[in-house]
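To whoever picks this up:

The nightly regression suite flagged V-type proton ATPase subunit a as changed. Nothing in the input moved, so I suspect the structure step. Input below, exactly as stored in the fixture:
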Amino acid sequence: MGEVRAAGGGGGGCCPPMNLFRSEPMQLVQLIIPMESAHVTVSYLGDLGLLQFKDLNADKSPFQRTYAAQIKKSGEMARRLRFFKDQMLKAGFSPKKSAAQADINIDDLEVKLAELEAELVEINANGEKLQRAYNELVEYKLVLQKASEFFHSARSSAAEQHSEYASRQIGEDSLDTPLLLEQEMSTDSSKQVKLGFISGLVPRQKSMAFERILFRATRGNVFLRQAVVEDPVTDPISGEKVEKNVFVAFYSGDRAKNKILKICEAFGANRYPFSEDLNKQDHLVTEVSGRLSELKTTIDVGLLQRDNLLQTIGDQFEQWEFLVRKEKSIYHTLNMLSLDVTKKCLVAEGWSPVFATKLIQDALQRASFDSNSQVGAIFQVLQTKELPPTYFRTNKFTSPFQEIVDAYGVAKYQEANPTVYTIVTFPFLFAVMFGDWGHGICLLLATLFLIIREKKFSSQKLGDIMEMMFGGRYCILLMALFSIYTGLIYNEFFSVPFELFAPSAYACRDLSCRDSTTMGLIKVRPTYPFGVDPVWHGSRSELPFLNSLKMKMSILLGVAQMNLGIILSYCNAKFFQNGVNVWFQFIPQLIFLNSLFGYLSLLILVKWSTGSQADLYHVMIYMFLSPTDDLGENQLFAGQKTLQIALLLLALVAVPWMLIPKPFILKKQHQDRHRGHSYTPLEISEDNIQLGANHDSHDHEEFEFSEVFVHQLIHTIEFVLGSVSNTASYLRLWALSLAHSELSSVFYDKLLMLAWGYNNVIILIVGIIVFICATVGVLLVMETLSAFLHALRLHWVEFQNKFYEGDGYKFYPFSFAWTGDEDE
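Regenerated output under the current build:
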């Protein structure tokens, strides 16, 4: 296209000025801000949210910029706030929402956050030490209890053996008495081996491997006893609940002891001392129990203190967080400004809408006054050939439709915005595929629920799918309303027809024609006033009739929307004063499309209005194969043959009309533009020097005729083939409408009516439940998504490719409204 007109220029174009049809006129502005008022100025501009700053220090690393130290300080405060938030979430607190602004200086806040962090870290460290000591004492108590049972059982068995030996000594020797028993029982005490033991707890899942390794490492010279601890134990080191076993390992010698100690460390077995003396055992159990109760009390007091501290932080957390984010974003923006040579002021450049000029100037004046600056900030508009960003003022109703268009590509600066038409055409094409006023009412009720509870949902954190549905609630509302409208036209309520507006215009000639065919029907009343006559549903002619109706309707809608796209390309060409696109793109495209498919639409309308039996397939095929043959019974009006030959010739002429002249005209325009302009007078101006350096290469780039011609060839082929494929693509409206209707009919007949026919209450209830689940799951969820995606494709590919370039970039102003949604 031609050059973009100046932002402040006149309107022009074929359409009246609309806020959404053309993006807002933008201007490149320059601000010269004194150092003492720079912070307040950027803060006020962030509150205004209508200026997109350019990075004038792109060649510098973040550490080389002016305010790197302040950003580091803000980042440290943000880290402390994240630490507080994690601690509150662990403790089950949530930050309180507060509308009041935090009346605190950022420096005071930094000191306060540092003090709170130090206090909280100290409380956590003391709590962890106490908790670890408590967990160790719990394990120690378990070891004392279980190990004492080992020794008690060992002593009991030893006493039994001793008493058995004594009883046998009293009695006489018998043949059953072992010969070596006396020698075994009377061994010299000086020759007995003294055994040592180690006690502790080992994780239960490692207990088998622990026992096996001990046996192999000591070559069987170890005796291991284990007892299962019923409840999971909190491990002192990891702090997690672990199922454990108490063990006592008996050994002989220091080498075995060292091996056992190393194995215990490898398996994470916690060791605890144990005494064989019963009195010492009882004393240890009493002492450990007392220490446990003391530690429990101390831990509870520490937790209460931590909760009180977190509660105090939570009361002001959101205010502090917003203040820190605001401060960090201000310094990020200040780092995008360049420092003046005198180092007394900052120079900023950025894009702003033209309507925001007065607002920005007012903000600059207020900032100078509030910061007691002796010099005010300077505001001036720069002239540039750089493409401005695209900015549309939307509201909660129009924003979902704008997002649908932007997902394909952001509009080029001030080109025609498809959103104006998408607001109507998107939900309507969806409804053509989803036409059932019963399903439309269900969709409407779900949407009204979202709209009625709008304030509540907007303040909550929603899931991904729910957030997407809530954001597009007004789009879904229009989809539901249009679905009710098309459902009334199709006369379908969950696939059931109703005589809503009048009785059927037809009646049976005799009883034999009922539910079998329309051949026996005769017209006894006036034509059904709105939509499809209910008599067609359930008849033998239903599918042929509705297929013909919906297929022809799809072609009419498709040709109408493609013509709208071509007309919008004329609006763009007229607005940008590009006459080449008007004469060698818009006119031949309009002629080619309407010579073929516009003519087909005309034949459909004539056939409907006259009731002719002409075969339109035959007419269109032989329009190309044998244009001079007589049409015979397929002739719909006088002069049709001559009109067809003329339209065919126009379509053939339109192809080279699109292809050949435009590249040569563009080449001639390029030569005229640069003839005699090899040298230009140099004006002594710093801005002109800068702009010349930025745009010299753009103004004097070479014109490659071969590339332009190939591009035009591709564009021509794409349009010619696309006219056929795009028209065929609109037949998806017919296909999906038919599929939706047939699915709804199958669910109604095979689930609801089949269950009704059994005359059984249980079967009927089950049938109703299955029917509701199938309707919601398939027709209201899957079919809705399917029709939505197909409507999206029709807009992106078939409609927008006729005029929409979509190679712009969005206007992202510096605003504190964005900082609340950003995760640091």
